[in-house]
Amino acid sequence: MKVYLSRWVCLAVEDNLRRVRHDALKASATGAEMVVFPELFLTGYSRPLNPQVARKVFAEVSAVAPDVLFVFGSISEARHNRVTVWLRGRELAAYDKVHLFCPNGEHEIWDAGESYVAFEWRDLRIGLVNCNDIRFPEQARALKLEARCDLLVVPAWWPWRRDHIWSTLLQARAAENELWVLGCCIEGSVWPGEEFAGAGNHVFDPAGEAVRTGDDRTYELDVDNPPPTIVDPVERFVEIERVEIIKS
Question: What is the pTM of this model?
């Protein structure tokens, strides 16, 4: 399966809306079956946009490329940081970010989501995770144990100076849950008061090995032939309800 992870620089909203049409269709023309954009890629934290305008563009683009699954990063909607997935002109799934990043004031902008989300596409079950969520292994574990996910898609707005943390967390979630993990991060933001250098894109297979790419955008995933299971996280899971604290 060919996947395209955008390397997106967030500019003025009108520029971004024009570019998303172009970039999405250019990606689909390469033969990509899944196209992913990063978190808040149209607006960043501070640029206003009516979410219905964004939804109209998403519908148009996904209708023009009906065989492509689009994960349009996230938008700010109804006081949530919302990941939205589209296929054939319709929203297929949506997920509201659960673990808001307080150092960026996200808890003042949005309300936390109340559920984890997975959806089915082709023969895959895909879990949605948004940026800071990747710090919380219980979310990825629930998506594996309860939803039986094969793959996680993780759009993000993560700083370049901490790319090593971003990639390590993605790799850990892949290895401990034996699933594919796709991390698509904003490349940068050019906007007064919100200049930003973003981290890289990273893809890991179920063994925790990096999937190599020549352009940091296009990745080939052999989803029909994943690497051999090392430790099955479902069969070998042991539920413990009690933690003992021994005081000296």
Answer: 0.95
What is the reported pLDDT for 83?
98
What are the tens digits of pLDDT across the range 188-224?
A: 999 999 999 999 999 999 999 999 998 889 999 999 9
Give the 3-state secondary structure of the chain.
Answer: CEEEECCCEECCHHHHHHHHHHHHHHHHHCCCCEEEECCCCCCCCCCCCCHHHHHHHHHHHHHHCCCCEEEEEEEEECCEEEEEEEECCEEEEEEECCCCCHHHCHHHHCCCCCCCEEEEECCEEEEECCHHHHHCHHHHHHHHHCCCCCEEEEEECCEHHHHHHHHHHHHHHHHHHCCEEEEEECCEECCCCCCEEECCCEEECCCCCECCCCCCCEEECCCCCCCCCCCCCCCCCCCCCCCCCCCC
Identify the structural domains of the chain with CATH numbers, from first to last: 2-220 (3.60.110.10)
